[in-house]
Amino acid sequence: MSSQKGNVSRTRGQKYQNSTAFRNNKYGTSVQVKKANDKVHEGICKRCKEVLEWKVKYMKYKPLTHPSKCVKCLQKAVKDAYHIICKACALQLELCAKCGKKEDIVIPLRTENEDEVEEEGGAQKASHERRGRSRRTRAQDDDEDDDFDDEFDTGSDLDSSDGDTRPRNKQCKDPVPQVSTLQIQDPSKLG
């Protein structure tokens, strides 16, 4: 047989070859596929990372439905699929969370404290960006909003269509010009 194990004298190439590569989102993506594609595999060695990426790429990755037992601390704390060690034990013992070997970790585990600091940093950055707008810009935005509200004003400060019962702030407006003093020219005399 030409396909017998150990037969290295085979000369021809592969008989059937796909013309296009497999895509796991070809017919739209389900929630499970989206989560698998977005998942960052951290706390594992290079080989285990490649295995998990292959499983995700070819739709073989199946997430855990409930936590499994860690082989080090014997607690139900393993929340990632195909892992045998929980994140806490893997971080403390510096082991790969999937194979359990002491290998070089490709993407190190982030602790919960680092996640909280990163989330707070993002919130602070967003609030800083909001504060960074100039007062003049905010005042212009407020003026534009007031212009739209004035067109639909019914005359009562307490009546509003958005359910807000607080009285609106009145703005100083330019006085309306006297129309009686204007002189209107006849268009037939102009031309």
Automatic annotation (TrEMBL):
Composition bias type Polar residues, residue spans: 178-191
Superkingdom field: Eukaryota
Region (Disordered): 113-191
Annotated Basic and acidic residues bias: 163-173
Acidic residues bias (residue ranges): 141-162
Pfam family, one: DUF2039
InterPro entries listed in its UniProt record: DUF2039 (IPR019351)
Compositional bias annotation for Basic residues: 128-137
PANTHER family attached to this UniProt entry: CHROMOSOME 9 OPEN READING FRAME 85, ZGC:101016
Record's protein name: Uncharacterized protein
Source species: Conger conger (Conger eel)
Upper taxonomic lineage: Eukaryota, Metazoa, Chordata, Craniata, Vertebrata
